[in-house]
Design a protein that fits this description.
heterodimer; A: alpha/beta; Rossmann fold; six-stranded mixed β-sheet; four-stranded antiparallel β-sheet; globular; B: alpha/beta; ten-stranded mixed β-sheet; 25% helix
Chain lengths: 249, 479
C-alpha cells in the first residue's frame, strides 16, 4: 500500500524527517507515537502534499506510484486521506456543498457513476448519525464555528464519505472526551477492511484501547526509533519517550 | 498551494470574447450639436427632447471628467468615439423575434442565452439591446394584459411621451455629473418600464446588453417607474466581445419608486475586462440612482466581474418616510482591472432604513475599491443604516480599498459600519485539494462562499449564473 524509504524532509530550512523508513501493507493499522516535535505531523503533511515541505532525499510509493510526482489532489484521487489535527474553516461554503463536490470528484476519478442528489443526501445524513453530528452541521459552513470535537467528527464524516484506501489520522483523538473518542474509534473500526489501511498519529495509548493497531512505531528525531506490536504502546505509557530518544542519539 | 499556482489559477481568458458578423451603420467619430441633431432625427424625436439633449450637451462642455475615483487610465478622447451605431438589418424594425437577424440570435446562443428557450422556460420577457437599437421584445402581450409597459425608451418617447417627459432626468438630472450629462446628450436607446398602480409585474423583466461595434460609445438610458403600490423585479446582464481598443460605456439608470411601491434591480456585468496585460477592455462609467417615496423600497443587487475600469455607485434617495434602500454588491477584479464602486444612501424621510452589503474580491494585480456614502439629513429622524463591507484578496499582488463617507445631521439616526479584509488562505486551499478538488474549483468555491450573502438576494436563475460567472472569471490553466 505505502512504502516510505529513507525519507528526508526539510521545512523552513530545518530538517525534520531524517531517514524515515516505513512500509504499510493493505488492511493494516499502524500507530505512530512519539514526543512533540519528532516529525509526526510533518509525515502526514508531506504524504498529503502540503506546500512548503521539501523532500531532500528518499522515496515514497503509494499503490505503486511515486507520490512526489503527483499533485495534492491527485494523491487524494488515488485514495489518500488526511484527517487534520487543526481543520480550517471555510466560511460560507456549506459542509454539504463541500462534501458533494469532493464525493463527486472521487466518483469521477474512479470512473464510478455520480451519486444523484437524493442518494447523496441520504448517505450524508446517515453518516452524520454514525459520527454523532447533528444533521444541521451539513448546512453550516465547513468547520465554521464548530467546537474542537465537532471539527474532529467532521473530519471523520469526510473520511467516511470519501472511502479512502489509506487514511492518515493526525491526532484525531486530541481534545476529545471519552464519548467522542469512542465514536471516532467505532467509525475507524467499521471502516477497517483488507484493502484499506490506517496510520494513527497519536500521543496517547488510550486511543489504542479502542482501535487495536497491528503495529506501533515510535518516531523520534525524525526517524522510526522503535517498532513493535501494541504492547510497545503500553511500554511507552509506562516509561515515556526519553529512553528512546537517548537510544537514537 | 504556492503563490505561483494561485497566479495560474486566476489567470484566464475571457470566455465571451468574439465579434459577431452583423453589419452596422456607424456614424463618423466626433461630437458636436449636429451629431446630436442627427441622433435625434434618426429617432424621430419630438422637439422638446432634442432641446433637452442639446441643453445637456452644453452643460457637458462646461464640465470636466471626475478625478476622485481610485482608478487610473489614459484620458478618453471623446472626438475619437462614434456616437451612433445601428445594426444594418434593423433599418426596418422586425415585428417579432423571427424577423431578427439570425446572426444576432446566434451571438446570444454563443453566450449561452438561447433567447426563445430562456424566455419560454424561465418566463422572462427579454428586451435585447444590441449596440444601440432594441431588436426584439417578448411577452409584450402578457405584460400588456397587466398594463405593464416594457419597451425601448425610443419607442416610449413616441408612445408614452407624457410619462417620459415627466420622469426623464427627474432622478438623475441631465447635468448631474460629467458622464450623466454626456449620456443625456447622446443616449442611444435603452429600456423603459412602467408598472401601473397596485400592479405586481407578472414576470421578471430582463434586458441583455451587448456592445458589438468597435469604437462605438454605448450610452444606454433606462427609466423604470413603479407607480403607487406596484412591484417589479428587473434583471440586467451584460457581456461583450473581445476588443483591443478601450470602449467607453456611460449608462444612466433612473428608478422612480412611488408610494408603497417596490423595485428590485439586479445586474450581472461581464463586459470585456481587457487582457492579462491590461490591453483593451470596457470603461464602465455608470450613473444609477433611485428615488424612493413614502413606504417605498428599492433594492440594488449587482455582480460586477467585467470591464477594465468600473465607476459605478447605484444609489438610493430615501425621500419618503419609512422608505427602504438596499445595496448588495459583489465586485470581482482580476489581472489589471480597476473597480471603484459602492453606493450612496441619502436619508431624507423619517424612519428611513438602508442596508449595504459589499463584497469585493481582488485577484491578479487588480485594484478594487468600495466607496460609499451614508447621509442622514436633519429631517431623517429615526433613520438607520447598516453597512458591511468585506474584502477578499487572492494572491499578494492585488489591492483592496475602502472609502466610507458618513454624514449625520440628525442625532437620532443610527449608523453601523463593519468592515473586514481577508485572504484566501493556503490552508483552505490545501484542505480542498486534499479532499480531491483542484485549485481552480477550490478557489471558486471559497469565493462563492464569501459572496453568499449577496447571491441569496439574486433571483434564482441569476444566482446560478452569477456563481458560474465567478467560476469562469477565476478560471485558468490549472487542472
Amino acid at each position: 500500500m505505502l512504502k516510505i524509504d529513507n525519507l528526508h524532509v526539510r521545512v523552513d530550512g530545518k530538517d525534520i524527517l531524517k531517514g524515515l523508513t516505513l512500509h504499510i501493507g493493505a488492511g493494516e493499522v499502524h500507530a505512530i507515537m512519539g514526543p512533540n516535535g519528532s516529525g509526526k505531523s510533518t509525515l502526514g503533511h508531506v504524504l498529503a502534499g502540503r506546500p512548503g515541505y521539501t523532500v531532500t532525499a528518499g522515496t515514497v510509493e503509494f499503490l505503486g506510484q511515486d507520490i512526489f510526482a503527483l499533485a495534492t489532489e491527485e494523491r487524494a484521487h488515488l485514495g489518500l486521506f488526511l484527517a487534520y489535527q487543526y481543520p480550517v474553516e471555510i466560511p460560507g461554503v456549506s459542509n454539504m456543498e463541500f462534501l458533494k463536490a469532493a464525493v463527486d470528484t472521487m466518483h469521477e476519478k474512479r470512473g464510478e457513476p455520480a451519486l444523484d442528489t437524493v442518494s447523496f443526501m441520504k448517505l450524508a445524513r446517515e453518516t452524520c448519525k454514525r459520527v454523532d453530528l447533528d444533521q444541521a452541521f451539513l448546512k453550516r459552513g465547513v468547520n465554521e464555528g464548530f467546537s474542537g470535537g465537532e471539527k474532529k467528527r467532521n473530519e471523520l464524516l469526510q473520511m467516511m464519505m470519501l472511502q479512502p484506501r489509506l487514511a492518515i489520522m493526525d491526532e484525531t483523538d486530541s481534545g476529545l472526551d471519552i464519548d467522542a473518542l469512542q465514536v471516532v474509534a467505532a467509525g475507524v473500526n467499521s471502516m477497517r477492511s483488507s484493502d484499506r489501511s490506517f496510520v494513527l498519529v497519536t500521543h496517547y495509548q488510550r486511543l489504542l484501547d479502542y482501535i487495536e493497531p497491528d503495529f506501533v512505531h515510535v518516531l523520534a528525531a525524525g526517524r522510526i526509533a522503535k517498532s513493535g506490536d501494541k504492547s510497545l504502546a503500553l511500554e511507552l505509557e509506562d516509561k515515556g519517550y526519553a529512553w528512546l530518544e537517548d537510544e537514537v542519539a | 498551494m504556492s503563490q505561483q499556482q494561485i497566479d495560474r489559477t486566476i489567470g484566464r481568458e475571457y470566455a465571451a470574447g468574439f465579434v459577431s458578423d452583423v453589419e452596422s451603420d456607424t456614424l463618423a467619430p466626433g461630437l458636436d450639436e449636429d451629431v446630436i441633431r442627427f441622433i435625434s432625427a434618426q429617432k424621430d424625436e419630438p422637439e422638446w427632447l432634442l432641446e433637452w439633449r442639446l441643453e445637456a450637451y452644453r452643460g457637458w462642455l462646461q464640465m470636466t471628467s471626475p478625478k476622485w475615483a481610485h482608478v487610473h487610465y489614459p484620458e478618453v478622447d471623446f472626438s475619437a468615439i462614434s456616437y451612433y451605431s445601428q445594426p444594418k438589418s434593423m433599418a426596418n424594425r422586425p415585428k417579432s423575434l423571427d424577423e431578427v437577424d439570425p446572426e444576432l440570435l446566434r451571438t446570444y446562443e454563443k453566450l449561452g442565452i438561447p433567447l426563445h428557450e430562456q424566455a419560454v422556460l424561465a418566463g422572462v420577457a427579454v428586451d435585447i439591446v444590441f449596440d444601440s437599437v432594441s431588436v426584439g421584445t417578448t411577452f409584450r402581450g402578457k405584460l400588456a394584459e397587466a398594463g405593464v409597459i416594457f419597451c425601448a425608451i425610443s419607442e416610449a418617447v413616441r408612445e408614452y411621451p407624457d410619462l417620459v417627459r415627466k420622469y426623464l432626468g427627474s432622478v438623475v438630472p441631465r447635468k448631474d455629473n460629467y458622464y450623466a450629462a454626456l449620456n443625456s446628450a447622446v443616449f442611444s436607446d435603452g429600456s423603459f418600464v412602467y408598472i401601473p398602480k397596485g400592479v405586481r409585474c407578472p414576470m421578471e423583466l430582463s434586458t441583455y446588453f451587448r456592445i458589438n461595434e468597435a469604437n462605438t460609445g454605448q450610452f444606454e438610458r433606462t427609466l423604470i417607474i413603479a407607480d403607487e403600490g406596484s412591484h417589479v423585479s428587473y434583471l440586467e446582464g451584460c457581456t461583450a466581445p473581445m476588443r483591443d481598443e478601450n470602449q467607453l460605456h456611460a449608462a444612466v439608470v433612473e428608478l422612480v419608486v412611488l408610494d408603497d411601491a417596490q423595485i428590485k434591480y439586479s445586474t450581472v456585468q461581464n463586459w470585456y475586462p481587457g487582457d492579462a496585460e491590461g490591453r483593451g477592455g470596457i470603461y464602465n462609467f455608470v450613473t444609477k440612482r433611485a428615488v424612493a417615496h413614502r413606504n417605498a423600497k428599492v433594492s440594488w443587487t449587482q455582480v460586477e466581474t467585467g470591464s477594465a475600469i468600473t465607476w459605478k455607485y447605484p444609489s438610493c434617495i430615501l425621500r419618503g418616510d419609512n422608505s427602504v434602500g438596499e445595496f448588495y454588491s459583489v465586485a470581482l477584479t482580476n489581472n489589471l482591472q480597476q473597480a471603484d464602486t459602492g453606493t450612496k444612501m441619502i436619508h431624507l424621510g423619517k424612519n428611513t432604513t438602508s442596508t449595504i452589503i459589499s463584497k469585493g474580491i481582488s485577484a491578479g494585480k487588480s485594484s478594487n475599491a468600495y466607496r460609499g456614502l451614508v447621509r442622514m439629513s436633519p429631517n431623517a429622524t429615526g433613520a438607520r443604516n447598516y453597512t458591511q463591507c468585506d474584502s477578499l484578496l487572492i494572491g499578494d499582488k492585488c489591492a483592496a480599498h475602502t472609502f466610507p463617507y458618513i454624514e449625520s445631521r440628525n442625532p437620532s439616526a443610527v449608523i453601523e459600519h463593519e468592515a473586514t479584509t481577508s485572504k484566501v488562505s493556503d490552508d483552505q486551499l490545501y484542505l480542498c485539494q486534499q479532499r480531491g478538488l483542484n485549485a481552480e474549483k477550490a478557489v471558486s468555491m471559497i469565493v462563492n462562499g464569501f459572496c453568499k450573502d449577496v447571491f441569496k438576494e439574486l433571483p434564482m436563475e441569476f444566482a446560478v449564473e452569477a456563481g458560474k460567472l465567478l467560476e469562469v472569471s477565476l478560471e485558468g490553466s490549472v487542472g
